[in-house]
TrEMBL record:
The name this protein goes by in its record: ABC transporter permease
GO CC terms: plasma membrane
Source species: Falsigemmobacter faecalis
Transmembrane portions of the chain: 16-38, 72-94, 101-122, 155-176, 197-226, 255-278
Domain ABC transmembrane type-1: 68-274
Subcellular location, record wording: Cell membrane
Primary location recorded for the protein, binned into one broad class: membrane
Length: 288
Protein backbone atom coordinates (compact mmCIF):
# COMPACT_ATOMS: atom_id res chain seq x y z
CA UNK A 1 0.00 0.00 0.00
CA UNK A 2 2.84 2.34 0.81
CA UNK A 3 4.15 1.85 -2.69
CA UNK A 4 1.09 3.66 -4.00
CA UNK A 5 2.34 6.86 -2.40
CA UNK A 6 5.49 6.89 -4.51
CA UNK A 7 6.08 7.31 -8.21
CA UNK A 8 7.55 4.36 -10.13
CA UNK A 9 11.13 5.49 -9.69
CA UNK A 10 10.54 5.31 -5.94
CA UNK A 11 12.14 8.66 -5.19
CA UNK A 12 9.34 11.20 -5.42
CA UNK A 13 5.98 11.27 -3.68
CA UNK A 14 2.93 10.65 -5.80
CA UNK A 15 0.08 13.13 -6.13
CA UNK A 16 -1.98 11.07 -3.67
CA UNK A 17 0.79 11.29 -1.07
CA UNK A 18 1.19 15.04 -1.55
CA UNK A 19 -2.58 15.50 -1.21
CA UNK A 20 -2.66 13.40 1.97
CA UNK A 21 0.21 15.36 3.50
CA UNK A 22 -1.29 18.74 2.63
CA UNK A 23 -4.85 17.88 3.69
CA UNK A 24 -4.36 18.73 7.41
CA UNK A 25 -2.80 22.07 6.50
CA UNK A 26 -5.59 23.08 4.15
CA UNK A 27 -8.19 21.87 6.64
CA UNK A 28 -6.75 24.19 9.30
CA UNK A 29 -6.63 27.08 6.81
CA UNK A 30 -10.26 26.50 5.86
CA UNK A 31 -11.34 26.29 9.51
CA UNK A 32 -9.44 29.23 11.04
CA UNK A 33 -9.19 31.58 8.03
CA UNK A 34 -11.57 30.93 5.14
CA UNK A 35 -14.68 30.16 7.16
CA UNK A 36 -14.43 33.22 9.46
CA UNK A 37 -13.57 35.44 6.49
CA UNK A 38 -16.51 34.21 4.43
CA UNK A 39 -18.81 34.57 7.44
CA UNK A 40 -17.70 38.17 7.88
CA UNK A 41 -17.99 39.00 4.19
CA UNK A 42 -21.51 37.59 4.13
CA UNK A 43 -22.56 40.37 6.52
CA UNK A 44 -21.60 42.96 3.92
CA UNK A 45 -24.15 41.68 1.39
CA UNK A 46 -26.82 40.05 3.58
CA UNK A 47 -27.33 42.54 6.43
CA UNK A 48 -29.94 43.78 7.03
CA UNK A 49 -31.10 42.38 3.67
CA UNK A 50 -29.37 41.32 0.43
CA UNK A 51 -27.77 44.53 -0.77
CA UNK A 52 -24.60 46.13 -2.10
CA UNK A 53 -25.29 49.44 -0.39
CA UNK A 54 -22.40 49.03 2.04
CA UNK A 55 -19.93 48.67 -0.82
CA UNK A 56 -21.56 51.61 -2.62
CA UNK A 57 -21.15 53.72 0.51
CA UNK A 58 -17.47 52.82 0.79
CA UNK A 59 -16.84 53.63 -2.88
CA UNK A 60 -18.86 56.86 -3.08
CA UNK A 61 -17.50 58.53 0.06
CA UNK A 62 -14.15 60.21 -0.75
CA UNK A 63 -13.03 59.90 2.87
CA UNK A 64 -12.79 56.14 2.60
CA UNK A 65 -11.04 56.40 -0.77
CA UNK A 66 -8.42 58.67 0.83
CA UNK A 67 -7.91 56.18 3.66
CA UNK A 68 -7.36 53.36 1.16
CA UNK A 69 -4.98 55.54 -0.88
CA UNK A 70 -3.06 56.53 2.27
CA UNK A 71 -2.79 52.85 3.21
CA UNK A 72 -1.33 52.07 -0.21
CA UNK A 73 1.18 54.94 0.00
CA UNK A 74 2.33 54.01 3.51
CA UNK A 75 2.69 50.35 2.51
CA UNK A 76 4.81 51.37 -0.49
CA UNK A 77 6.99 53.63 1.67
CA UNK A 78 7.50 50.89 4.25
CA UNK A 79 8.39 48.37 1.55
CA UNK A 80 10.81 50.73 -0.23
CA UNK A 81 12.62 51.82 2.96
CA UNK A 82 12.77 48.22 4.19
CA UNK A 83 14.36 47.19 0.88
CA UNK A 84 16.98 49.96 1.02
CA UNK A 85 17.94 49.00 4.57
CA UNK A 86 17.62 45.25 4.20
CA UNK A 87 19.68 44.67 1.05
CA UNK A 88 23.06 45.72 2.52
CA UNK A 89 22.36 43.62 5.62
CA UNK A 90 21.43 40.60 3.51
CA UNK A 91 24.53 41.10 1.35
CA UNK A 92 26.73 41.23 4.45
CA UNK A 93 25.08 38.06 5.77
CA UNK A 94 25.64 36.27 2.46
CA UNK A 95 29.35 37.16 2.54
CA UNK A 96 29.83 36.23 6.21
CA UNK A 97 30.48 32.90 7.86
CA UNK A 98 30.89 31.42 11.31
CA UNK A 99 30.42 33.61 14.40
CA UNK A 100 29.99 36.77 12.34
CA UNK A 101 27.05 35.27 10.44
CA UNK A 102 25.56 33.91 13.66
CA UNK A 103 25.80 37.35 15.29
CA UNK A 104 24.12 39.15 12.36
CA UNK A 105 21.40 36.51 12.16
CA UNK A 106 20.75 36.84 15.88
CA UNK A 107 20.41 40.61 15.51
CA UNK A 108 17.87 40.11 12.72
CA UNK A 109 15.84 37.49 14.59
CA UNK A 110 16.08 39.08 18.05
CA UNK A 111 13.04 41.38 17.52
CA UNK A 112 10.86 38.28 17.10
CA UNK A 113 11.47 37.51 20.78
CA UNK A 114 9.24 40.44 21.76
CA UNK A 115 5.72 41.25 20.65
CA UNK A 116 4.82 43.91 18.10
CA UNK A 117 3.00 45.78 20.84
CA UNK A 118 6.16 46.07 22.95
CA UNK A 119 8.25 47.30 20.02
CA UNK A 120 5.60 49.83 19.02
CA UNK A 121 5.33 51.08 22.59
CA UNK A 122 9.10 51.52 22.66
CA UNK A 123 8.88 53.78 19.60
CA UNK A 124 6.18 55.86 21.25
CA UNK A 125 8.58 56.48 24.15
CA UNK A 126 11.44 57.38 21.82
CA UNK A 127 9.39 59.74 19.64
CA UNK A 128 7.48 61.70 22.26
CA UNK A 129 8.24 65.40 22.84
CA UNK A 130 10.47 64.62 25.82
CA UNK A 131 11.73 61.37 24.37
CA UNK A 132 15.29 60.31 23.69
CA UNK A 133 15.31 61.44 20.05
CA UNK A 134 14.03 64.96 20.72
CA UNK A 135 16.32 65.42 23.71
CA UNK A 136 19.27 64.13 21.70
CA UNK A 137 18.66 66.54 18.83
CA UNK A 138 18.27 69.43 21.25
CA UNK A 139 21.39 68.38 23.11
CA UNK A 140 23.60 68.55 20.01
CA UNK A 141 21.96 71.76 18.79
CA UNK A 142 20.02 70.44 15.80
CA UNK A 143 16.71 71.79 17.11
CA UNK A 144 15.83 74.58 19.52
CA UNK A 145 12.57 72.99 20.69
CA UNK A 146 10.97 69.54 20.56
CA UNK A 147 9.63 68.43 17.21
CA UNK A 148 6.34 66.69 16.68
CA UNK A 149 7.51 63.19 15.82
CA UNK A 150 4.80 61.11 17.45
CA UNK A 151 1.36 60.67 15.85
CA UNK A 152 2.66 61.39 12.37
CA UNK A 153 2.91 59.40 9.17
CA UNK A 154 6.69 59.35 9.53
CA UNK A 155 6.41 57.70 12.94
CA UNK A 156 4.14 55.03 11.48
CA UNK A 157 6.53 54.34 8.60
CA UNK A 158 9.64 54.17 10.83
CA UNK A 159 8.04 51.83 13.36
CA UNK A 160 6.58 49.56 10.66
CA UNK A 161 9.96 49.35 8.93
CA UNK A 162 11.52 48.28 12.22
CA UNK A 163 8.91 45.56 12.66
CA UNK A 164 8.78 44.28 9.07
CA UNK A 165 12.39 44.60 7.88
CA UNK A 166 13.34 41.02 8.92
CA UNK A 167 10.74 39.77 6.43
CA UNK A 168 12.70 41.63 3.74
CA UNK A 169 16.15 40.54 4.88
CA UNK A 170 15.56 36.79 4.95
CA UNK A 171 14.27 36.28 1.35
CA UNK A 172 17.03 38.47 -0.06
CA UNK A 173 19.63 36.63 2.00
CA UNK A 174 18.32 33.29 0.71
CA UNK A 175 18.64 34.48 -2.89
CA UNK A 176 22.12 35.95 -2.39
CA UNK A 177 23.31 32.83 -0.58
CA UNK A 178 22.43 30.72 -3.64
CA UNK A 179 24.59 32.79 -6.00
CA UNK A 180 27.92 30.99 -6.55
CA UNK A 181 30.96 33.08 -5.62
CA UNK A 182 32.54 32.05 -8.93
CA UNK A 183 30.18 34.39 -10.78
CA UNK A 184 31.60 37.50 -9.16
CA UNK A 185 35.16 36.25 -9.70
CA UNK A 186 34.36 35.54 -13.35
CA UNK A 187 33.05 39.07 -13.80
CA UNK A 188 36.22 40.47 -12.21
CA UNK A 189 38.41 38.34 -14.47
CA UNK A 190 36.53 39.71 -17.49
CA UNK A 191 37.50 43.21 -16.37
CA UNK A 192 34.26 44.35 -14.73
CA UNK A 193 34.76 46.63 -11.71
CA UNK A 194 32.98 45.60 -8.48
CA UNK A 195 30.04 47.96 -9.01
CA UNK A 196 29.44 46.69 -12.54
CA UNK A 197 29.67 43.09 -11.39
CA UNK A 198 27.13 43.86 -8.70
CA UNK A 199 24.70 45.57 -11.11
CA UNK A 200 24.98 43.01 -13.91
CA UNK A 201 25.54 39.76 -11.98
CA UNK A 202 24.59 39.88 -8.31
CA UNK A 203 21.52 42.12 -8.46
CA UNK A 204 19.73 40.31 -11.33
CA UNK A 205 20.30 36.93 -9.67
CA UNK A 206 19.07 38.29 -6.34
CA UNK A 207 15.94 39.81 -7.92
CA UNK A 208 13.66 36.86 -6.99
CA UNK A 209 14.47 37.37 -3.31
CA UNK A 210 13.98 41.13 -3.65
CA UNK A 211 10.58 40.61 -5.27
CA UNK A 212 9.57 38.04 -2.67
CA UNK A 213 10.59 40.26 0.24
CA UNK A 214 8.97 43.35 -1.25
CA UNK A 215 5.59 41.72 -1.86
CA UNK A 216 5.68 40.03 1.56
CA UNK A 217 6.33 43.32 3.38
CA UNK A 218 3.91 45.26 1.16
CA UNK A 219 0.97 42.91 1.66
CA UNK A 220 1.63 42.71 5.40
CA UNK A 221 1.81 46.49 5.69
CA UNK A 222 -1.53 46.91 3.91
CA UNK A 223 -3.39 45.24 6.76
CA UNK A 224 -1.22 46.34 9.69
CA UNK A 225 -3.15 47.48 12.74
CA UNK A 226 -1.22 47.85 16.01
CA UNK A 227 1.50 50.25 14.88
CA UNK A 228 -0.75 52.71 12.96
CA UNK A 229 -3.25 52.67 15.84
CA UNK A 230 -0.68 53.57 18.50
CA UNK A 231 1.65 55.90 16.57
CA UNK A 232 -0.64 57.49 14.00
CA UNK A 233 -3.25 60.19 14.31
CA UNK A 234 -6.76 60.29 12.78
CA UNK A 235 -5.22 62.20 9.87
CA UNK A 236 -2.92 59.23 9.19
CA UNK A 237 -5.62 56.57 9.67
CA UNK A 238 -5.09 53.37 7.70
CA UNK A 239 -7.74 50.96 6.49
CA UNK A 240 -7.24 48.51 9.36
CA UNK A 241 -7.77 51.29 11.92
CA UNK A 242 -10.89 52.42 10.07
CA UNK A 243 -12.30 48.88 10.14
CA UNK A 244 -11.63 48.64 13.87
CA UNK A 245 -13.29 52.01 14.42
CA UNK A 246 -16.43 50.94 12.58
CA UNK A 247 -16.69 47.82 14.75
CA UNK A 248 -15.73 49.17 18.19
CA UNK A 249 -17.18 52.68 18.10
CA UNK A 250 -20.05 52.55 15.60
CA UNK A 251 -20.96 48.83 15.89
CA UNK A 252 -21.46 48.88 12.12
CA UNK A 253 -20.44 45.32 11.33
CA UNK A 254 -21.90 45.20 7.78
CA UNK A 255 -19.99 48.30 6.68
CA UNK A 256 -16.81 47.08 8.38
CA UNK A 257 -17.27 43.78 6.52
CA UNK A 258 -17.59 45.73 3.25
CA UNK A 259 -14.29 47.48 3.97
CA UNK A 260 -12.72 44.08 4.66
CA UNK A 261 -14.12 42.86 1.35
CA UNK A 262 -12.61 45.79 -0.55
CA UNK A 263 -9.25 45.28 1.15
CA UNK A 264 -9.38 41.55 0.36
CA UNK A 265 -10.13 42.25 -3.31
CA UNK A 266 -7.32 44.81 -3.43
CA UNK A 267 -4.76 42.44 -1.89
CA UNK A 268 -5.91 39.56 -4.09
CA UNK A 269 -5.58 41.69 -7.23
CA UNK A 270 -2.05 42.79 -6.29
CA UNK A 271 -1.05 39.20 -5.54
CA UNK A 272 -2.39 37.99 -8.88
CA UNK A 273 -0.54 40.75 -10.72
CA UNK A 274 2.76 39.84 -9.09
CA UNK A 275 2.10 36.16 -9.65
CA UNK A 276 1.38 36.84 -13.32
CA UNK A 277 4.51 38.94 -13.78
CA UNK A 278 7.00 36.92 -11.75
CA UNK A 279 5.49 33.59 -10.69
CA UNK A 280 5.05 32.47 -7.10
CA UNK A 281 8.29 30.50 -7.04
CA UNK A 282 10.30 33.59 -8.05
CA UNK A 283 8.37 35.74 -5.55
CA UNK A 284 9.54 33.35 -2.83
CA UNK A 285 13.13 33.34 -4.02
CA UNK A 286 13.01 30.12 -5.99
CA UNK A 287 14.25 29.37 -9.47
CA UNK A 288 12.22 28.81 -12.57
Amino acid sequence: MAAGFFQPEGRRLSKAAVTALMLPFFSVIALVFLWPLLSLLSLSVLEPEPTLAHYQRAIDNPVYARVLWRTLVIALWVSAVSLLLAFPVALLMARSEGPKLAFITACILLPFWSSVLVRTAAWSVLLQRKGLINEGMQGIGLTAEPLKLLYTQGAVVVAMVHVLMPFMVLPIYGALRNIPADYARAAAICGAPPWRGFLHVTLPLALPGVIGGFILVFLTALGYFITPSLLGSPKEMMISTLISQQIREHLDWPFAAALVGLLTLFVTAITLVFSRLFGFDRMLGGRK
